[in-house]
């Protein structure tokens, strides 16, 4: 997962996890585990949506929005996370993104994330609301620099972020269609946990925090 690892293991990832840890009162290891699962979960769900023309058009429109296309949030994390509370506008934007991506399964997505990283579902929900605008900002910035303007180029961008690993996409799809499959919350959480451990995402995040 080269580009996702680049995001999480670089200065943005470090600032995101350190700032979120302080704001939410979580230790850095739990925060890193949560973001290490939340970002590929959201990206996987977006890639799944983008396989449909309507979903791709909606995502392209959202990426063209000035709130996301410039990637300004990524340059302003210290302001967003540095005060006494997390910026309400960011959380509202995150909630809107999640509802669009996961539809009626947003709460189940938070349950999966909570089980994946051993945190309370309400805390997991907050982390997902913080992660979603970061994903959109990162996608928007890359979409602009790579001149992404259609379904094929969007699919290519999402594939590069996930290193063309469809396991995340398939697991995210099961969350999106949770009411119509046989997987439980625990099953899906274990899949994300095993995937993160096998690819060293969490370890890379913790090493980044300690460096």
Give an overview in words.
The chain is an all-alpha fold and 211 residues long. It has one domain (2-210). The protein has helices at residues 2-9, 11-24, 28-49, 53-64, 66-69, 72-75, 77-82, 88-102, 106-117, 121-145, 151-161, 166-176, 185-199, 201-210. Helix 3 (28-49) crosses helix 12, helix 8 (88-102) crosses helix 10 (121-145) and helix 12 packs antiparallel against helix 13.
For the structure shown, list the relevant keywords.
mainly alpha; DUF937; 211 residues; globular
Summarize it:
The protein is built from 14 helices and no strands. By secondary structure, the chain is mainly alpha-helical.
Ends apart, CA distance between termini: 21 Å
The domain tally reads 1
Helix percent reads over 70%
**Strand proportion:** under 5%
Q: DSSP helix count?
A: 14
Q: How many distinct beta strands? A: 0
How does the overall form come out from the CA principal axes? globular
Order of helices and strands: HHHHHHHHHHHHHH
User: Sheet bearing the most strands, described?
Assistant: none
Radius of gyration: 16 Å
Runs in which pLDDT lies below 50 for 5 or more consecutive residues are none
Estimate the mean pLDDT confidence.
83
Give the class from helix and strand content and strand pairing.
mainly alpha
């Amino acid at each position: 997962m080269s580009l996702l690892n680049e995001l999480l293991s670089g200065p943005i990832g470090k600032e995101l996890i350190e700032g979120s840890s302080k704001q939410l009162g979580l230790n850095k290891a739990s925060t890193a585990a949560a973001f290490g699962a939340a970002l590929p979960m959201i990206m996987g769900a977006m890639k799944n949506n983008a396989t449909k023309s309507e979903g791709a058009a909606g995502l392209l429109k959202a990426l063209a929005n000035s709130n996301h296309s410039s990637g300004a949030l990524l340059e302003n994390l210290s302001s967003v996370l540095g005060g006494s509370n997390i910026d309400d506008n960011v959380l509202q934007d995150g909630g809107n993104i999640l509802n669009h991506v996961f539809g009626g399964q947003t709460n189940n997505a938070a349950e999966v994330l909570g089980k994946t990283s051993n945190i309370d579902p309400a805390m997991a929900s907050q982390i997902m609301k913080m992660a979603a605008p970061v994903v959109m900002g990162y996608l928007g910035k890359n979409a602009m620099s790579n001149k992404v303007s259609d379904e094929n180029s969007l699919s290519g961008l999402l594939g590069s972020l996930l290193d063309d690993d469809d396991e995340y996409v398939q697991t995210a799809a099961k969350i999106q269609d949770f009411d119509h499959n046989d997987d439980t919350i625990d099953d899906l959480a274990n899949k994300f946990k095993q995937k993160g451990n096998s690819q060293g995402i969490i370890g890379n995040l913790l090493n980044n925090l300690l460096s």
